[in-house]
């Protein structure tokens, strides 16, 4: 076998050696490794790397899912629409942006545990039920709803199973007939 054809077989290393080697890698490289196979994703998850935060932004001007880390500057980001890309960003295209957002966020959260923050404009999205049916998206640290007036149906799709831990901001006017029960219940139990 020619010298240049030899390959380094990461998965054949003993567990401790493999983990030490993988812990020396950048988080972006670990993310890329996780895309190779389910086994590699499990190996990356086993490192228990904590994310400072996960962000989902679905607004008229920006659609992205990102994960930010304490120890390394920068973030890993998946974008859904055309726009300027920088280092550590990947572009992907989903016909159903809600399903794509859920899939990418679910993978990031599987690999790198951390709190979730959501900024969403419900008026530009078609299938909020599908997105918020994913267990990984049913609990967040903060949520901001922006854009034009949110319909009762959109709010119901968002808040049906949602648990917000720290902060909820609703910028647009909402239908007065819709009550965000989680907020009422939380304020009643803490007040």
From TrEMBL:
Residues 7-56 form the F-box domain. It comes from the Eukaryota. Pfam families: F-box. PANTHER family: F-BOX-CONTAINING HYPOTHETICAL PROTEIN C.ELEGANS, PROTEIN CBG06869. This is F-box domain-containing protein. It comes from Caenorhabditis brenneri.
